User: What shape does this take?
Amino acid sequence: MNIAVCLCQVPDSASVIGFADGALDRSRINEVMNPYDEYALEEAVCLKEHIAGSLVTVFTVAPLSAKDMLRKALALGADRAVLVSATEPSDPYLRALQLKSALMEFYEGIIPDLVFCGKSSTDFQSAQVPSMLGALMGIVSVSGVTSLNLSGEYLHLEREIEGGVEQIELHYPAVISAEKGLNQPRKTTVKAVMEARKKPIDLLTVSVDGAPLVLMSDLKALERKKVCRFAEDEKDLVLLLSNECSLFPGD
Amino acid sequence: MTKFLVFLEQREGVLKKSSIDAWNRVQEIAALSAGAIVTGLLAGPVDRQRIGDLLAGDGVVYHANEERLRPYQQESYTRLVTSLVKQESISALFFADSSLSRDLAPRLSVLLKASLLSGDLLFNRQGYPDGSFRPVYSGLATASFSPQRNISIYTLSPSRGMVIRSSADGTVQVMPTAQYHHSSDNLLAEVRRIVLRQNSLDIAEAGIIVAGGRGMGSSAGFALLEELAALLGGAVGASRFAVDEGWRPHAEQIGQTGKTVAPQLYFACGVSGAPQHLAGIASAGIVVAINSDPDASIFQVADFGIVGDVHLVLPKLIEALKEFLKKK
Assistant: This one.
């Protein structure tokens, strides 16, 4: 079984995130694997461990500096890692196009059995790439998966919906977008990290023919400070709220 | 003539409140812009409700009233929407932001070569929607997004309080629409079952949310929040810490790796206010913070606050609220 995992890098939420001239100030940030992608990778590796002859390959469209993240993915159990060079995509559609073209080239035109992605990246938070990738590849996609079981040719999935859970059954190939709760990602071990250093990283260059669907502009730091009015006591707070909030019961 | 299409979502035969809200908001937009026509598409049957009575304004709702469309099915829903958008020359398609739209809209965007936008709407001079504005980088920044194609798809976040207007004005005409049964419809992915949690108001649709974090101390500590939420008719939410500790289910998590919510009133109890949490409440109306640390960053985004231990403040707040309600 061929399992592909699409990874991306995002600024570490612990680093100083600042903006200059309408762009992210990259000088002070540390980039890490997108948190949702960790669930995607873990699920792919778990599947591989249960299905003999499976191969997990991770892909990222990123600059060469992303090699560290790919080594981490190898240490976490991926078999192969592919660093895809392409022009920086300006929207999720171009990103999905680049990924599709990288997957098609790597797998020589044969659609992999499963493609895992994180539900959303924590930088632009559009949560569009997985479903777009499914549409571009002409295969089904399921977003926000919280449980996955494989039996024969069927996948049994669960995804969270408003107020409950949807249970889905499907045949692969499919694109699965991983939601928090799908699994508990493992930690790297020193031995695995050492071994990963020796593994090669494949380089692939793609160029896609397409125009963006959406243009992002006006990126700026959000000033959200309010002046907090401290209530004298709980009774005072109830009174304040009953005056200020129309939904407050009793009105 | 500009035509808008609102996707109306039913779940288990009930038209969703968030879809009704989206329809009514699109009616308002159409009224303010130079005469756009509002149409709707409803996939699957709606039981025991008259669709026309639920929706405000004038318009046409195309209803694919087929039993097999009752559960969400990506492939048939995709085909249904794409064919109607083409047939009716729709220029803007609207969804209420939901688990369904997050699955379906990106696919439609690719197949229709349409610009997919989410967040608060931006308008052009004629009053037509022309882009969106939303938080990025976990709520640390904002950005504007503008469509580059002729067709746009907007996913509308819940409006504050989700006011459902009376539908006395206007007439909504319901027209049956059929869908080709493709031979390739061998159900690539099929929803087998929907398991709904009992008696729980979803935080994404709640007008009032009472959320707890690390300061609640344990899952038992949330009993106070349950009581407060019940008194207020609201829902209980949780911070990432509370969910990771197993105190509350992930469905209740608010913030970067959880849900984005837009209640009219938000209580943050024992929540420190990490940027990842604040990202989820950027559109909340009034924020009330209760925290023992007066320097907690949650107070910087709060309208009202009480400095104190949640275990002492909440029982008194519940008492004060009960007394207030008795007097009413």
Summary: Chain A has one domain: 2-14+23-217. Chain A touches chain B through 82 residues (CB under 8 Å).
